[in-house]
Amino acid sequence: MICVGSVGDIEEGTSKGLDVEGAYLFAVKRDDIVYLYRNSCPHLGTPLEWEEDQFLDPEGSLIQCSTHGALFDIKTGHCLAGPCKGQHLQAVPFLLDNGLLMVEPGHLGQRDIHGATD
Ligand code: FES
User: Fold this and answer.
1) Which residues pair with residue 95 across a beta bridge?
2) 27 Cβ contact partners less than 8 Å away, ≥ 6 residues apart
3) In this predicted structure, what is the pLDDT of residue 22?
4) pLDDT tens for residues 76-114?
5) Which of 2, 10, 18, 80 could form a disulfide with 29 if both were Cys (CB 3.0 to 4.6 A apart)?
6) Which atom of ligand 1 is the closest one to the Cα of 66?
7) Å from CA of 1 to ligand 1 middle
8) Entry pTM
9) CATH fit for domain 2-103, picks 3.40.50.20, 2.102.10.10, 2.40.30.110, 2.60.40.420
10) Which residues contact 74 (CB under 8 A, 6 or more apart)?
11) What is the pLDDT of residue 86?
């Protein structure tokens, strides 16, 4: 498994971009739980963040795409509003090992790999 980041590096109520071996991911910590997604909007496949590590709306209650403003539930990745409403962010399965986020290499979803089925 590959370490993509440390839980301790993510402040409560904030998000963090993770660039690991060519894969763009991001994590959100909410109520001490970490959620991990691919950094790719289901609308156009663009990265979501506004600025480095800024993936949330101004209230910090939803994930918001910086391109066209789609809003996503932090816990489920479900798109609640915007052009990709009803679609989902791609959650990345991970294990916690001593505070480290560990991901199977096959779940990283490198940008240049297409056609994978979920
Ligand atoms: S690319 Fe994210 S809402 Fe259009």
Assistant:
1) 102
2) 5, 10, 15, 16, 18, 34, 35, 36, 37, 101
3) 87
4) 999 999 999 999 999 999 999 999 999 998 888 765 444
5) 10
6) 2
7) 31
8) 0.91
9) 2.102.10.10
10) 28, 30, 35, 56, 61, 62, 63
11) 97
Cα separation, 58 vs 94, in Å, equals 27
Is residue 53 within 8 Å of 9, Cβ to Cβ?
no
- Percent pLDDT > 70 in the chain is 92
- Ligand 1 mean position to 71 CA, how many Å? 9
Characterize 81-93 residue by residue with b for buried, 16 or more Cβ atoms within 10 angstroms of its Cβ, and e for exposed. Answer: ebebeebebbebe
Write down the pLDDT at residue 114: 47
Which residue in 50, 52, 14, 6 sits closest to 31, CA to CA? 14
Residue having the nearest C-alpha atom to atom 3 of ligand 1 = 68
Distance 54 CA to ligand 1 centre (A): 15
Domains in the chain: boundaries: 2-103
